[in-house]
Amino acid sequence: MRRSFSDIVSGLGFLIVAAAFWFAGRDLTGISRVFPTGLEVFLGLGGLALVFNGIRLARKEAACEKEFIAWNRVVLITAASVIYVLLIPLVGFYVTSVVFLFVLAMILAEKGKGRKGMVQALAFSGGLVGLIWLVFLQILQVPTPSGALF
Question: What pTM was estimated for this model as a whole?
């Protein structure tokens, strides 16, 4: 996959996550809104930077040989992102995020899709969401979107 294309897709992913945070936290007011707003702005600006960098790189890569695009992965990642955003308010941020990150890790895995790859993907997604839980809820005491499960 070309770097320009992966930058554009990653940037769009960041923009989707920023929109999900905005959507889930739009009812927050006062001081509890400060950190989520900062996170949304940070993710949004990072997403825009990646998209623009991808567009800039695409112009440079235009002279190179055409590369195969894994459209099945693009469609799966886009669908997973949309489902993720829709399920956060229903199921909860943490459970949905673990499942979402696990699914993305399995989609993006070049090799190691066996048992070892699944264990690594689960450890990564659980560890990352656990770190987010620790930082947001325990240290900063900033609420995250809640749902039916957590």
Answer: 0.57
Angle in degrees, 0-180, between the axes of helices 93-108 and 71-91, rounded to the nearest 10 = 170
Domain assignments of the chain as residue spans, ordered by start = 1-69, 70-150
Q: Which of 40-44, 72-76, 128-132 has the highest mean pLDDT?
A: 128-132
**CA-closest candidate to residue 3, choices 80, 64, 84, 81:** 64
User: pLDDT > 70: what percent of the chain?
Assistant: 89
Contact between 147 and 88 (Cβ < 8 Å): yes
CB-CB neighbours of 114 under 10 Å: 9
Residues 96 and 84: their CA atoms lie apart, in Å, by 7
